[in-house]
Design brief:
52 residues; rod-shaped; mainly alpha; 3 helices
Length: 52
C-alpha cells in the first residue's frame, strides 16, 4: 500500500487536484454518517425503553 501511495505522489498535479476536491464530498459523508448514528441511537433507545 505504501509503495502505491508513493507512486501516486509522483503525479503531483493529479494529487493536488484530488486533495482540493476531496473536502466537500467527505463533509457530506460525515453529515450523513452522524445523522445515521443519531437515528440508530434513538431507535435503540426506543427499543430498549419499550423492553423495560
Amino acid at each position: 500500500m505504501r509503495k502505491h501511495l508513493w507512486k501516486s505522489c509522483g503525479d503531483g498535479g493529479d494529487v493536488s487536484k484530488r486533495q482540493r476536491r476531496a473536502p466537500s464530498p467527505w463533509w457530506w459523508v460525515r453529515i450523513i454518517i452522524s445523522s445515521l448514528l443519531m437515528i440508530w441511537r434513538t431507535v435503540i433507545w426506543v427499543l430498549t425503553w419499550h423492553d423495560h
